[in-house]
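Hypothesis: this fold can be encoded by more than one sequence.
Test: take the structure tokens below, design a sequence, compare later.
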């Protein structure tokens, strides 16, 4: 009987257990502890794969359906929407179930014993300004975890989990701002931590505030795509009839990880054909049709994400757009990224300010800012966070592991 912590992330998933006096993440993807949250329905082998193998199968051109950003469906009406497979259809709820079933099986193989009780991480808000959606999301995720075979399932806020991981290493008492910027959400906590507080049974007095916003790396991908790649496919272009513009929703779906598959239907294809006839730039629409026809939507999203990541440490890069019968390498630079995504970074900063106000502390009272989550590697995001507590020490956590490790600490406290 083992308690574990599960960080089911929009982009990556980890699962940890106690190991003697320490906590450790289990190998979920070969030897890797970080498992891409990806599911591939392989139509050729009639099989389902998850993680890096899912991404690799798709990239290598195996016929099938890739699903990413499935966590984004929690708390929305789309959780029970379904996607066509070769035979039949599958709901997002069932896709998440398939993914977590496999995660549990792999984790138990790595651990060598059944995992019975789990603390699952959750963003402070799955959806913005919608308490009913938040409650529904947690309930759905809990039901899926129980269906996967966990006996006890409870939740902890992801930034509080990150704080518990950070607390393992602090030598003295401090007031910390925790910032966890992932693929789907940005989450913050203001917490009092310290070696003496670590073992206390009730920590609620140490949590001054939690807040979050549904902005993450996948939104940066979307806005970068809409500003750079999508115009090459006709986004924002004119139609033959004066005064009309290209329909925006097609481009939003293609630029949004969780919605790409919505374009792979006969109905969407018919709409695209009509659109080409009515467009003033049919050649660009031809590219769009090529991408949809060849199921290259995720490949394009991956190229955009790669460009975003490349711009975290170089000033310019090229974004490869391949529509089957042609390709182009679009130059993209940091200034372009920042223009496209500046509003998102601004919203992250604004939310931190209101979280500090909720906590009743002025920025100068914050001793340390603890950073975790892949999107804290974006210079613009990091600057937006640090501007809200300019005097604080900056501590970089385990970028992809702190939340999972902290959930494991919490699982020991609750069930160990
Ligand atoms: N070097 C980098 N520069 C910028 N962004 C990066 C970098 N490396 C990873 N990312 C982004 O980090 C995000 C994934 O981060 P992470 O794994 O922390 O998210 P997650 O935990 O799965 O999501 P969430 O917690 O929001 O559900 C992706 O959007 C990815 O593009
Ligand atoms: Mg995360």
């Amino acid at each position: 009987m083992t308690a574990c912590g599960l960080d089911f992330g929009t982009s990556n998933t980890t699962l940890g257990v106690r190991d003697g006096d320490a906590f450790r993440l289990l190998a979920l993807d070969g030897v890797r502890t970080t498992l891409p949250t990806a599911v591939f329905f392989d139509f050729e082998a009639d099989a389902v794969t998850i993680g890096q193998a899912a991404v690799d199968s798709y990239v290598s051109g195996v016929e099938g359906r890739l699903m990413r950003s499935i966590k984004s469906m929690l708390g929305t009406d789309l959780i029970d929407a379904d996607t066509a497979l070769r035979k039949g259809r599958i709901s997002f709820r069932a896709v998440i179930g398939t993914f977590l079933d496999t995660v549990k099986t792999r984790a138990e193989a790595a651990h060598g014993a059944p995992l019975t009780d789990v603390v699952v991480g959750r963003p402070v808000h799955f959806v913005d300004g919608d308490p009913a959606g938040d409650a529904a999301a947690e309930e759905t995720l809990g039901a899926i975890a129980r269906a996967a075979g966990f006996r006890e399932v409870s939740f902890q806020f992801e930034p509080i989990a990150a704080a518990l991981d950070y607390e393992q290493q602090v030598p003295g008492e401090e007031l910390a701002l925790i910032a966890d910027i992932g693929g789907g959400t940005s989450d913050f906590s203001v917490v009092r931590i310290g070696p003496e507080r670590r073992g206390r049974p009730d920590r609620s007095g140490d949590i001054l505030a939690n807040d979050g916003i549904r902005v993450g790396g996948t939104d940066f991908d979307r806005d970068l795509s809409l500003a750079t790649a999508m115009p090459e496919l006709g986004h924002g272009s004119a139609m033959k009839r004066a005064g009309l513009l290209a329909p925006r929703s097609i481009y939003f779906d293609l630029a949004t990880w969780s919605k790409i598959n919505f374009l792979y239907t006969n109905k969407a294809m018919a709409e695209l054909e009509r659109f080409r006839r009515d467009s003033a730039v049919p050649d660009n629409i031809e590219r769009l049709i090529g991408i949809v026809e060849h199921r290259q939507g995720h490949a394009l999203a991956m190229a955009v994400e790669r460009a975003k990541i490349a711009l975290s440490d170089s000033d310019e890069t090229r974004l490869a757009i391949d529509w089957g019968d042609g390709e182009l390498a679009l130059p993209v630079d940091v200034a372009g990224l920042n223009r496209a995504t500046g509003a998102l970074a601004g919203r992250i900063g604004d939310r931190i300010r209101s979280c500090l106000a909720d906590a009743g502390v002025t920025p100068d009272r914050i001793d340390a800012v603890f950073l975790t989550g892949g999107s804290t590697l974006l210079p613009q995001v990091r600057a937006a966070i640090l501007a809200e507590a300019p005097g604080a020490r900056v501590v970089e956590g385990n970028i992809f592991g702190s939340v999972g490790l902290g959930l494991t600490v919490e699982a020991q406290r609750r069930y160990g």
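DSSP finds 13 helices and 18 strands in the chain. The pocket of magnesium ion (ligand 2) is lined by residues 7, 9, 158, 180, 182, 373, 403 (CB under 6 Å).
Hypothesis status: open.
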